[in-house]
Write a structure and sequence with these properties.
- By secondary structure, the protein is mainly beta.
- The protein is 0% helix and 40% strand.
- It contains no helices and ten strands.
- The strands form three sheets. Strands 3-10-5-8 form a four-stranded antiparallel sheet, with no helix packed on it. Strands 4-9-6-7 form a four-stranded antiparallel sheet, with no helix packed on it.
- A hairpin with a 4-residue loop joins strand 6 and strand 7.
- It is elongated.
């Protein structure tokens, strides 16, 4: 491992800093990056997700719209609706209008969970995805690429 010492003389709040880098230049590896997150609440909210071309074959959405905690003012929500646009290297897109949450029937999810999985039609050519919230729910929808 290579080590560099960075110091700045004459500044009272600066202490010695040792930066440790792995051999070969270091840096964060793509495999370490998380490919999951949340699509914020509210109609029109958007998330743009970039990743190495061909990495994911599908995107999963999860949303428990049945949750109710009356003493906290948490009420059930409508079914979540998300527009998924998967970009292909040739400039075209796969557009899917997905629904997620209790009440959605999906033969690929027989356990009746709160999730929806959308498989990409050309996974080897997908290099980014844009999610746009279409419903007016007040809680976020979770997403994960795999």
């Amino acid at each position: 491992m290579g080590r560099r010492r960075l110091r700045r003389a004459g500044h009272a709040n600066v202490r010695r800093l040792i930066v440790v880098e792995p051999a070969g230049g270091g840096g964060r590896q793509e495999e370490d990056m998380p490919y999951g997150g949340q699509l914020p609440a509210g109609r029109g909210s958007e998330v743009e997700i970039s990743f190495p071309r061909g990495f994911p074959t599908a995107i999963g959405l999860v949303y428990d719209n049945t949750l109710a905690i009356p003493e906290l003012g948490v009420e059930p929500q409508p079914i979540g609706e998300v527009r998924i646009a998967a970009h292909h290297g040739d400039g075209t897109h796969q557009i899917v209008e997905a629904r997620v949450g209790a009440g959605v029937t999906d033969p690929k999810q027989p356990d009746k969970t709160f999730k929806t999985v959308v498989h990409f039609d050309r996974p080897a050519d997908v290099d980014y995805v844009i999610l746009v919230r279409r419903d007016a729910g007040t809680r976020p929808i979770g997403w994960d690429l795999s």
